[in-house]
Design a protein that fits this description.
about 20% helix; three-stranded antiparallel beta sheet; two-stranded parallel sheet; about 20% strand
Length: about 140
Amino acid sequence: MSGTILDDLKIIDTDSHWSEPYDLWTSRAPGKYRDRVPRMETRGGKRRWWFDDAIPIGLPIASSVVDPAGEKVTGTVFFDFDNEMVHRASYDAEARVEMLDQLGLEAQIMYPNVAGFGNQNFLKSPDDALRLISVE
């Protein structure tokens, strides 16, 4: 007889974050909304997320504490990381599943970074259809 009573336990991470890929909305939105859905742009020399042409909704912060090599980053330096500076699993679904398998996690409850922390800014658009498309 091998194993323990813990062998059948499934571990679920209940507080994980998703750094939206920069083309998440623009690559999926209907054509007539593509230039208005959330998108990453550089304006006035500053890169940030924009919505409905003129509504800023967030900075390009990945909010990931895992670097490209898979090492955990300590402290608050990760607040300066964008998607290019973090592990692919922070913004790529296939890489996320691979990481879950490596960590022995069954699943995660994930919260979006841009759509989560910047959600109040979605309400600044007067276009109900655009707001709905952007969160579906």
